[in-house]
Amino acid sequence: MRVLGIYSIERRLRILEVCVDGCHWSIIKKALEAMEGREFNNSTVDSLIKALIAH
User: Fold this and answer.
1) Are 5 and 38 in contact (CB under 8 A)?
2) If 8 and its partner were Cys, which of 4, 30, 33, 41 is the partner (CB 3.0–4.6 Å)?
3) DSSP letters along 1-53, please?
4) Alpha carbon of 30 to those of 2, 3, 15, 41, 54: distances in Å?
């Protein structure tokens, strides 16, 4: 089993909070950027979403 870093867990929880009622990819990206106060590249957001779908 892979151990997740605290940032990864917080990011995944933020995605779930934002998408409770459904959302678009761009909303997820904006929410993560607002949470951390920095820009995310598309591949990072994509990886986080794919990881959630896989679990």
Assistant:
1) no
2) 4
3) -PPPPHHHHHHHHHHHHHTTT---HHHHHHHHHHHHTS---HHHHHHHHHHHH
4) 27, 26, 10, 11, 22
Residue 10 burial by Cβ neighbours in a 10 Å radius (0-12, 13-18, 19+): middle
Which residues lie below 8 Å from residue 4, measured CB to CB, with a gap of 6+? 12
- E strand or H helix at 39: none
Distance CA(51)–CA(55), nearest Å, equals 6
Give residue for tokens 């590249």.
41
Summarize pLDDT for 8-48 with one digit per residue, the tens.
888 888 999 999 888 899 999 999 999 999 999 999 999 98
